[in-house]
Every structure is written in C-alpha cells, then in structure tokens.
Design the sequence.
C-alpha cells in the first residue's frame, strides 16, 4: 500500500518499490520529480519509464512547460 498526501500523490520518502514504473505511478510521482523530492529508487524507476514511454515523456514536457509559465508569472522577489 502506498501512503499518500492530498490527491493520491505518494509521499516523497524511500520505500521498497519494484524496479519498473507504470504510467499511473509515473503520473503520481511527476510533481515530486519536478521538485527534486524523489528518493533514489523511485527516481531511477521514473527516469527508466520516461526513457521507455513516449506518452509519459510528452506529459512531462507539458507539465514542465506549464510550470515554467506559472513561474514566469510570479512576481519577482525584492530584498
């Protein structure tokens, strides 16, 4: 059983995982990947799946583009 926080997103902590990741798991981990919060085993499985699945690679591109657009709209922090 995978512990979750919020909307079925896995918590970013190490746990015993299979060496393979499917598209559903990929989608659950995508935000942790973008935030660089993934434990080693999950990150490796995520990157392996990314290399093997064009649909998920495209999904990550879309999410990265969206995140970049959002960050571009945030006001600049002034000190």
Sequence:
């Amino acid at each position: 059983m995978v512990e979750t926080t919020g909307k079925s997103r896995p918590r970013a902590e190490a746990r015993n995982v299979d060496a393979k990741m499917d598209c559903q798991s990929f989608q659950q981990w995508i935000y942790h990947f973008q935030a660089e919060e993934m434990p080693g085993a999950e990150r490796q499985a995520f990157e392996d799946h990314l290399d093997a699945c064009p649909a998920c690679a495209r999904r990550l591109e879309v999410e990265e583009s969206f995140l970049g657009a959002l960050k571009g709209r945030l006001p600049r922090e002034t000190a």
User: Anything to note?
Assistant: The beta strands are 4-5, 9-10. The chain has three helices and two strands. The helical segments are 23-34, 40-52, 54-73.
